[in-house]
Amino acid sequence: MTRSKKRLPPARRDYVTRFAPSPTGYLHLGHAKAALFAAKYAAQGRFVVRIEDIDRGRCRPEFEAAIFEDLHWLGLTWDQPVRRQSEHYADYTAAIATLRDQGLVYPCFCTRADIAREIAGANNAPHGPDGLLYPGICRAVSAAEAEERIAAGESYALRLKMKEASAVSGVLTWVDLGEGPQTARPEMFGDVVIARKDVPTSYHLACTYDDALQGMTLVTRGKDLFEATHVHRLLQKLLGLATPEYYHHDLVLGPTGQKFSKRDQAPTLRALRAVGRTPEQVLRILDL
């Protein structure tokens, strides 16, 4: 297991920070680092826990209960009440309406197969942080046709018109405490999905909205989410939201160099506790 020896930036003020897990499994060491790191910078400020449970197909009440149990075991306390994103879809729908009023949203009816065929026939298929960029098939669908297809019950996603949105926003910047000033480049994501028929928001939209609503002044998270901040900065501008500072910390890596994840059945805090590990030992493992 590898861990960073990089010098951490000082907590220069009374930050408001958050830990925002999804209750789709038990917490592992990567989650512990994210939670402890955020709490460290809120030592003289406020620390918030948010449950990001928009994926109702994978989220479970027992995993949410385990999150709180593990955080208490680590010695953490946080502001109440806890915000659960699944209870606030109306907020995200209102935010999307703001984007729609600016003419920056369109429905996309493409399946994965549709997108794959279009990309296969293209001479040059650009890539973004999440893989191949959406080729814009449904941009040509008229508003009348889109309304008919939605009324007929077709599945769809709402996409952001990235070119138009970037033109509206102009040049945007944000500050990462580890990497310094950044110029936002959200266009690398293409027409990013901001909601779906069955889930009226996306990670990008809900996270950005909630960080502003809850008054975050410092967002700490893993380096695997560094690029996502470019999209979040754009949404902040379009929705008139405040921009916090950021710090993207190193990930906790396993013995083969891969990041800890639920999918790879990384050792959970529950399992470590069961074999007698203490919170102090976890902190030493994480070098915090």
Description:
Helices cover 35% and strands 16% of the residues. It contains ten helices and twelve strands. The protein starts with 15 loop residues before the first strand and ends with a helix. The chain has 288 residues and is of the alpha/beta class. A hairpin with a 3-residue loop joins strand 8 (173-176) and strand 9 (180-183). It has helices at residues 29-41, 61-73, 89-101, 112-120, 143-151, 162-169, 203-213, 228-239, 269-274, 279-286; strands at residues 16-19, 46-51, 83-84, 105-108, 127-128, 131-132, 157-160, 173-176, 180-183, 193-196, 218-222, 245-249.
In short:
The protein is α/β, with parallel strands linked by helices.
- Radius of gyration (CA) equals 20 Å
The poorly predicted ranges are: 1-5
How many strands appear in the DSSP assignment?
A: 12
For the biggest sheet, the summary is:
3 strands, parallel
User: How helical, in percent, are the residues?
Assistant: 25-40%
Oligomeric state of this protein: single chain
> What's the tally of helices?
10
SS class: alpha/beta
Cα-to-Cα separation, first versus last residue: 15 Å
Record the strand order, biggest sheet. 1-2-3
Overall shape:
globular
Average pLDDT confidence is 91
Strand content: 15-25%
SSE order, one letter for each helix or strand: EHEHEHEHEEHEHEEEHEHEHH
